[in-house]
Amino acid sequence: MKRLSYHRIMNLLISCTAVSILCLTCLISMHAHAAEKKRVAVLQFNPVKAPQSYSNMVRNYVEMKLHGEKDMFVLEREQINAKEDLKELREYGCNDSSCAVLAGRSLSARYVVYGTVSGNRPYTITMRVLSVTDEKIISEYNESYANIKKTRKTVNTLTEKIIADIRKHSKKTAGNGRKTKTVKKHSCAIDTHAYFSIFQPLGKLHDLVRTGVGLQAGITLSDIQLAVVNLPPELILGFDTGFFISHGRDNDSDRFYMFPFLFSAGYHIPFYRHFYVIPRISLGAAYLRFYHAYGHGFDMDDNSVRHALDPALGSELVLGYHVYEGLYAETAITYGMLLESSGPVHTLLFQAGIRYRLDWSGPRQ
Known about the structure:
The protein starts with 5 loop residues before the first helix and ends in a 5-residue tail after the last strand. The strands form two sheets. The chain has an eight-stranded antiparallel barrel. Strands 1, 2, 3, 4, 5 and 6 form a six-stranded mixed beta sheet that branches. The protein has helices at 6-30, 52-67, 77-81, 89-92, 97-106, 151-176, 203-206; strands at residues 38-42, 46-48, 72-74, 111-119, 123-131, 136-145, 187-201, 212-225, 235-247, 255-267, 269-272, 275-292, 304-324, 327-340, 343-360. By secondary structure, it is α+β, with helices and mostly antiparallel strands. Helix content is 25%, strand content 46%. Residues 31-35 and 176-184 have low confidence and may be disordered.
């Protein structure tokens, strides 16, 4: 395969960059409202003379109601549980506003919903919403009822009031230009992943090499909180590399190796309980190595090697499932295109692997 000239490579890279930016812009614009979402954390409701299971049920109903609001971004419970400094909140919840402020800051949340569940026929639910930026409770409601079957209806009624108050407060603070007390800091979720891959060449590469195997690993950043800019929490930025090996189609002694180096951008979209999808686009380069042993096969001299470094562009769809705390199981299908002077080379990857999440709360002050 011919090597590209410097100017040809630069032109292809510029074209790939333009296409990638266009695709990513379209992807983010489909969910542009995400950047405007109010970031809400729902803490464990504190049970008072009531079973813990009942408190858990109330929290579930609150989260479900908030998840249905397009302008709300509700922090996943696993994100809250992963915070080492919030261990006690997992079981006991918050009893006062200072506790909720600390929790909200640790989670980079704008609002915190918490409260208490008390009694046993009649039952009483007290629900509060706190503005982390103002460090104060903006509203508090409570309601009592005798029949446990009315729990969901009662929770929905209280949550609707909370939602209205959040919107009213958000609109008010956005309109008056008031500076908040919250000190912004850098933080993000760091994921590492590793996939076993089946490599399927297409087109003219398919005429040269067979289906192969490989490994791919990488690191991604999501839920990125910066002091200077607000990024959509669903935006995922990453870097991947790996290696893939395949035998020659006409000569089993021939070998083909590919080592990609790709930067990527994607968008996390939850769709059913613990399931989610991540469409991603990637841009970078791939190092190719062809080895011909002897005889027929690659059109090369016996015992010779050819190298190439090609610009690479890819699109990927990841299907994932949250298994436990920071552990995720994922499958992916990836279309790749290598840009050569003789024309593009196409590939497909079928992948399965795991992802592990680490939360970085930012540099120490």
